[in-house]
Amino acid sequence: MTYVTTLTARIRLGAPMLGLVLLWGCAGDATDETEGPDVSSPLMRPAELAETAPDVYRARFQTNEGVFVVEVNRAWAPNGADRLYVLVKNGYFDDARFFRVIAGFMAQFGMHADPYVTAAWRNHPIPDDPVTQSNLRGYLSFAATSLPNSRTTQVFINLVDNTNLDGMGFSPVGRVVEGMEVVDNLYSGYGEAAPAGNGPLQQNISASGNAYLTENFPELDYVEQATIVGG
User: Fold this and answer.
1) The domain containing residue 130 runs over which residues?
2) Which has the minimum average pLDDT: 9-13, 17-21, 57-61, 146-150?
3) Residue 24 lies inside a defined structural domain of this protein
């Protein structure tokens, strides 16, 4: 298993991480706790789903706590906007947990319920976009590693102004235009991953998906369904 941070240096597993936006990369595939991949699912073939997004579109996220809507402007970050469009359009976020919600920082999600789907997308990163907007409250950006061109499916919504992330290369693709109160109320009680907090380990989500989260972190909020509603 390999692991990297979004900053310029690698840190050891389990080091305090408050204030960082992280992506963990696992060298292995899903564990055999699952029944095996559903090869009929289009989500298992990311390369076939590539598509250019409209110039402006809205993504509606129905969660167990209510609805929020993100307006995406492709001119801000074309590669990120295209990827988000494809993920939402094809149901990638449905049943995805908000697995890392840090009060006063951000809410992160985008690891699929099925670990085999997560593994399929891990090998299909998108090129970096220049940072044209700031990571202000309500703005949505992709998570990344310290390596170039590493964005895949994980995204985060800034709960406060996190302008320090701009210089680290996090390029906002859109902003919440409806339902920010829903985002604010997402469960944050677990905090960071252990040992800095009691939250889930991303490598375990990669290995077992929602089976791991449901058993060990039952309070996590989740996306019931995400859809494109405009554009």
Assistant:
1) 52-230
2) 9-13
3) no
Share of the chain above pLDDT 90, in %: 81
d(C-alpha 182, C-alpha 109), whole Å: 14
Assess contact for 158 and 141: CB atoms under 8 A.
yes
Residue 218's pLDDT is: 98
| pTM for the whole structure | 0.87
What CATH number has the domain bearing residue 112? 2.40.100.10
> Is 201 a domain residue?
yes
Q: CA 140, CA 156: separation in Å to the nearest integer? A: 6
Long-range CB pairs of 187-193 (<8 Å, 24+ gap) are 187/98, 187/101, 187/219, 187/220, 187/221, 188/101, 188/102, 188/103, 188/107, 189/219, 190/101, 190/217, 190/219, 190/220, 191/102, 192/16, 192/17, 192/18, 192/100, 192/102, 193/14, 193/17, 193/100
Q: What is the DSSP letter of 52?
A: P
| Structural domain contains residue 13 | no
CB distance 164 to 133 below 8 Å? no
The pLDDT tens digits for 177-188 are 999 999 999 999
Helix (H, G, I), strand (E, B) or coil at 173: strand
| Residue 23 in domain | no
Q: How many domains does the chain have?
A: 1
